[in-house]
Fold these 3 entries.
Entry 1:
Amino acid sequence: MLCQRKGEKTIFTGIVEEIGTVSKVVHGSTSFTIMIAAKTVLQDVHLGDSIAVNGVCLTVSKFDANSFAADIMPETYMATALKKLRTGSVVNLERAMRADGRFGGHFVSGHVDGTGTIIEKKRSENALYVTIQVPDTCHSFIHDKGSIAIDGTSLTVFGVKGNNITISLIPHTQTATILAEKAVGDPVNIECDMLAKYVFHMLNKTGQSNRGVTMETLVNNGFL
């Protein structure tokens, strides 16, 4: 599910540019084509461009002045929450990061690690705290104050308890993304921090995962 164009990996920032609306869904058995009404992400769109839809990197297969289409393959259908989308569903949208653009979130690949489920929502003054149960496969890459992408939105983890994480939405994020409107029981796409995954896998390959991260380990593996 990692988008590629011209042989290069596509990167997003987790800063949602706009909320789009699903205008058409054509279903197969474990695949579908989706049409999404949008404005901002269409300003400089081309065929083959990458657009993250709820954090999933999709490729523009056609477009007009008001919408674009993308194909969802069986792997993406099975591994993400996109299969829950229907006509009228709202979605977070972000174009791939430009080389000359400002970087406001964290590195997001558009490769979803799994789906989580919202289990609690609680307001505290201007903040909305959302607790999400995440898959076992994500547990090793999530830590307190670390970065995570939820439905393509770059967020900070404010609490970890087992496989439950809590994130806090500031007023801007509540209005600029779809997360505040989701209900308890709704699924969300989870992408763990890319750098955390790289470090974890590098340590596993070198047999040092049980020794922890040391300055020597970081230097020897090219991180410093």
Entry 2:
Amino acid sequence: MTRLPDTAHPLSRDDAAEAFAAILDGTVSDEAIAEFLIALSERGETAIEIAAAAQALRDRVIPIAAPANAIDVCGTGGDGHHTLNVSTAVSLVVAACDVPVAKHGNRAASSKAGAADTLEALGMDMAAAGASAEQSLAEIGICFLFAVNHHPAMRRIQPIRQKIGRRTIFNLMGPLANPAGVRRQLIGIARPGYVHVYAEALDMLGTEHSLIVSGDEGLDELSLAGGNEVADIGPDGVIMKRWQASDAGLPTHPIEAIRGGDAAHNAAALRRLLQGETGPYRDAVLFNAAAALLIAGEVDSLAEGAEEAAEAIDKGLANALLNCWIDFTKAAA
């Protein structure tokens, strides 16, 4: 069995790379993995360690082909706010603006309804959606990449994570290991104080233009309730910013205004949103869609992005795309 390095001090790039390769390849005992992950979490993972873990996962991914301009919109989860499915709605709205979206995700872990649960409640065959992801991305401009289908190395790690029962570095990995190899991303994390560290990790891994965002209240997406910590990653490295709803021409709303429920509840709210219902949920989607369109290079400002996203909803384009996607997966089943 491989011996993992001492975590008392930050690991070097080589030590971190070797450690996570051994963990994912199964050459370390379960007990040693648990001790290692807990120790890292208690100390606080560094950007080098996060990048090394993500690279090890990328090296073992089952990939799909994707358009060069494809993006991903997702969050790390675990924020505890149990909101409606914002990133799922944003993915549909942005794809309706002709930006291919390779959405990486899974079923709910800590929330009541994850993206997959809500899409299934809308009538989508999620097994078929996962199996036909590459085809649907190519033909209709959106897909759902089930993490479990693309990261076989994580199957052994999952029971260990569940036994630990606390946040570890693997809670941060999903957005950094998209199977489509996207180079532009909007990633929400539930730790505003960690945005810069996470952004540095993505910068080490390489990206064309991405945003790491976190609401001040620990929301893993752009929040309408107050300020947002934002890391803009591009050719000039990591640039830290502060955003609020007014930057996109939108009003503020408390987190409670977008509180979600089970999959059926969230699915009904998503359908009403795409059919033109106004209110806090729509505003939250417009705010985050504006950021996604910004990193996709479709707009030059958040305000312009919010307007384009609103148009995609009001013209029925996003709702039509959802219907098309559901029909596509039924045909692929």
Entry 3:
Amino acid sequence: MNPDIEEVLISAEEIDAAVKRLGQELTKDYQDKNPVVVCILRGSVVFLADLVRQMQCPLEIDFMDLSSYGGGMESSGQVKILKDLDTDVAGRHVIIVEDIVDTGNTLAKIHDLFLHRQAESVKVVSFLNKPERRTANVTVDYVGVEIPDKFVVGYGMDFDEQYRGLPYIGILKPNVYAHLFN
């Protein structure tokens, strides 16, 4: 285990099981819909790669890069589009792939944007869901794992661009980020 990790919250085996379950659910629901699967960069890339390999249906993939965190641990509330989609979503079924949904503010803005762009439907799949932190009225349609309000890293998720490659999801030791509060 990485020495900066206080506790492994979700093991690699638990991640695999949750991704397989989500892939089966999405396959069933999107079998004949050819959805556009939109990966929210960067944290969702690892999850997306695993998820689409479990989806046994035609699909397209696109990417969107957003900024709402800056370098800290809390969302600024301001959502900026750094890289927009290359795909026109009008008349298409869109699946937004998130690594984690906490406040839901970013997700709410993106969901509304796709509806404004006349998507046929917009659904959300998030590997992690942190409902305790929710401030926006958003629905996470497909949830991998619900977690408590802890700062987690691994499986694509980072702190200051580190820890993305961990094969598990862990709780970061407070002393790693304590300098942010001094």
